[in-house]
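Practice problem: predict the structure.
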Amino acid sequence: MSSPGFWDNTESSSKIVKQIKFLKSVTEPWFNSFNKYQELSELVGILDETEKDMAVDLENNIDLLIEEIGRLEFKTLLNGELDKNGCIFSINSGAGGTESCDWVSILLRMYTRWAESKGYDVKTTDILFGEDAGIKNVTLLIEGDYAYGYLKAERGVHRLVRISPFDSNKRRHTSFASVDVIPQVEDDIPMQIEEKDLKIDVYRSKGAGGQSVNTTDSAVRITHLPTGLVAQCQNERSQHQNKHMAMLILKARLYELERQKKEEELSRHSAEKKKIEWGSQIRSYVMQPYTMVKDLRTDYETGDVNKVLNGGLDEFIEAYLKFKASGKI
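Answer:
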């Protein structure tokens, strides 16, 4: 950064600044904890038996340091090639009709609140509302350090059991929604996409409107013909912006497909794809006749459903990543 002319190329310099910021986010917490450890070690060495107040204060600081080290230790689980990246996050309704669409809207709120609590930027790139209520499917771009590393734990089918507000007889209903997560890739990542392999459709956006969003054919859908992968965006202000965002999403999906092929995991990944219905869920959210959220992969559970639906997902994510690191998954 101190080299002459470093700031002349804005695009290049901004990438390096971003890289430095990420590296500092990794190293600085470790050095801070190590410095605290050294300071506490020195204080313990000179502690007098009569200084009870100081002993209590030291004990409290040691407990805080242990918690801090625990968080640093957990971050070592986020060691995948693309774990530090942002992600493209999709929620799709499954079996359950209107109830299932409402479940998607509840999950959207839950994940948005969780992401905002982490300081991540959340952007809706595509959304399709249900006929009567709720959302059929939605795609988000979630940007921030380790967004993909954390949210890859949420990939799978989520099941809700509750008294349906759409049932006049107040019967208990079960509904399903699936979550898919792929890592965001850099715009300049080397990838050859032939123009002849793309089918580009434009259509009128369906949404809240404003600034010509749903009054012109600004929404864009891009289909990659050789693979059948589809990416679409309708929430930007212009067709050009929507096309750019759709291409970023398509590139990310193609990159993920190629990465899986290279790792010889594509067949296994495809085998794990299940229908969005009974018996295929990774987590159950039960609101009646009792309250419980249980992850069926790790057996981690809690009775505080409201906390979870308000974005309190950290314990479930950490339990999954630790369980996966143990080799049991």
